[in-house]
Amino acid sequence: MNEVPCAEPLARSLSTWVAAIQLSLLPQESAALRLDNMKLEYLVLALLDIDGCEAAQMDVLSGSEAPFNRCPENFYDTLQQAIRQLRLFKLFARTHDGEYHRSVCPAAYNERTGEHHPEEMARWRADFRAMRPEQQMMAATIVWLYRSGSDSIWLRRVPCTWRASEALHYMHDAGCLALWLRLVASYPGW
């Protein structure tokens, strides 16, 4: 895919979700529109359907200075950066098939047979629970993107019910919000 042209000025064309993210990052007394009543999961699921212009706006929110290009190569690079930077190696594995991000899947899973391994899944969940909240938030986001929706396989019986506004502030304070924004913005579909 090529660069996404966006004819409207950013200030006037922010989508509801992108505007909500932007406003939720302001100090509490300044934010008129908040994501307090929404879980992070539902925000990620809502962002699965953003168009190229909205994705470019999210990329701007991340502070990225590189030209925005929503394509599998860029998403894969951002995904690999997220896994490396947040040390999520135990939770994600290389697959035997697929290019770019399609060569990555949550661990404890045989992508060829579609089977989940109970012992490995128990270890996956234990590793997830032992992580810091920002690692959990990023890992959960990757799983939701991988599944293109909710998940009851990997994220069952693990903490993942954060309020969206709190999660965004927490990731901001932990220094990984820009990476999260770029990951979601560059998502081309799994």
Task: Provide the descriptors you would attach to this structure in a database record.
190 residues; mainly alpha; two-stranded antiparallel sheet; two-stranded antiparallel ribbon; 9 helices; globular
Overall description:
This protein has 190 residues and is mainly alpha-helical. The protein has one domain (40-186). The chain is 49% helix and 5% strand. The protein is built from nine helices and four strands. The chain has helices at residues 10-13, 16-24, 40-47, 52-61, 72-85, 118-129, 133-147, 164-174, 177-186, and strands at 92-94, 104-106, 109-110, 115-116. The protein has a two-stranded antiparallel sheet with strand order 1-2. A two-stranded antiparallel ribbon has the order 3-4. A hairpin with a 4-residue loop joins strand 3 (109-110) and strand 4 (115-116). The two termini are 15 Å apart. The model is unreliable at 1-14 and 29-33 (pLDDT under 50).
Q: Any low-confidence stretches, pLDDT <50, length ≥5?
A: 1-14, 29-33
Structural class by sheet pairing and helices = mainly alpha
Radius of gyration using CA atoms only: 16 Å
Strand order of the largest sheet: 1-2
H-E string: HHHHHEEEEHHHH
